[in-house]
Design goal:
With about 240 residues, this protein is α/β, with parallel strands linked by helices. It is about 35% helix and about 20% strand.
Length: about 240
C-alpha cells in the first residue's frame, strides 16, 4: 500500500502518459480516480504514498460540483502531510485550495506549444537550494496547453515562470505542509508527442487562439525539446517520491 500513487484524472479515459508510466517503472502501484465520472475521492489517505492531480478542460473557477469537491479534498490532502503534485488544472486547484487565485490572461492569450520557462531569479538569489531540491534541472522549454494561470497562495514560493504567465511552478511551505513535496505546475510534463497529436486532432481550432503556436511549431518542438523533458520528468518523479 505504501507505494500506491493516486492519480486524479478529468477525462475518464485510459491513458498512457509519461508520468504514470514512469511511476510504474519506478516500482509504484497506481490507482486512477475520475470524479467527473462519479469516482469518489478516497478518505483513507494512509493507503496512498502520494497524489497527482492532472489537467482537464475545466477552469478551476467553474462552478462544477466535482471541482468543488476536489478543491476541498486537496486542502485536506495537503494538511495530511502527504506529497501532492498538481499538473495544469491540478496546479490551479492546489493554488485555489490554499487561498490563491486562478485567472485568465489580461489579453486573453493562451500558451499552446513549447514555451521558454525560466526559474525565479528572486528565489535563486534568496534560497539557492530550494529550486534544485524541488524541481532539479528544469528544461528551458516545456509543453503547455492552457489559458488560465494561478497566483500563489500564502506561504508558497514561485519556482519558475514564462513571459505570459509569471507563475509556472510553485512549492507550498508552512505549518502542516510536507516540506518541498507539495508542488503545482502549469506546464504538462506528462504529455508525450502521441498524446499531443490526439489533442491537436481533436481541438484544431485551439491553435487559432492568440499566443498559440502552429502545429508545425509544436511538432518541431517535440523533436527538439521533448527528449530533455522526458529525462527531467523521470528524475523529478524519483526525487519527489524519494
Amino acid at each position: 500500500m505504501r507505494n500506491k500513487i493516486l492519480l486524479v484524472d478529468h477525462a475518464g479515459q485510459p491513458r498512457e502518459d509519461r508520468v504514470s508510466k514512469a511511476l510504474v517503472a519506478l516500482g509504484h502501484d497506481i490507482e486512477w480516480c475520475c470524479p467527473v465520472k462519479g469516482d469518489l475521492l478516497p478518505d483513507d489517505f494512509d493507503s496512498y504514498r502520494a497524489a497527482i492531480v492532472y489537467g482537464g478542460m475545466e477552469c478551476a473557477n467553474d462552478p462544477l460540483p466535482h471541482l468543488d469537491l476536489e478543491t476541498d479534498w486537496i486542502a485536506r490532502w495537503v494538511r495530511s502531510t502527504k506529497p501532492y503534485l498538481g499538473i495544469c488544472l491540478g496546479g490551479q486547484l492546489l493554488a485555489k485550495a490554499l487561498g490563491g487565485k486562478v485567472y485568465r490572461h489580461a489579453q486573453a492569450k493562451k500558451e499552446i506549444g513549447f514555451y521558454q520557462v525560466k526559474r525565479s531569479q528572486t528565489l535563486e538569489q534568496s534560497e539557492p537550494g530550494l529550486f534544485h531540491d524541488c524541481l532539479g534541472e528544469l528544461p528551458e522549454f516545456l509543453f503547455q496547453w492552457h489559458e488560465d494561470g494561478f497566483e500563489l497562495p500564502g506561504g508558497a514560493c514561485n519556482l519558475a515562470g514564462s513571459e505570459l504567465f509569471p507563475s509556472q511552478a510553485f512549492v507550498c511551505r508552512g505549518e502542516g505542509v510536507l516540506e518541498n513535496k507539495v508542488i503545482g505546475l502549469q506546464f504538462h510534463p506528462e504529455v508525450t508527442r502521441e498524446i499531443a497529436t490526439v489533442w491537436l486532432d481533436t481541438f484544431p481550432a485551439a491553435l487559432e487562439a492568440s499566443g498559440a503556436q502552429s502545429r508545425d511549431e509544436i511538432e518541431q518542438g517535440f523533436l527538439k525539446y521533448d527528449p530533455a523533458v522526458d529525462r527531467w520528468a523521470k528524475d523529478f518523479l524519483a526525487h519527489w517520491l524519494g
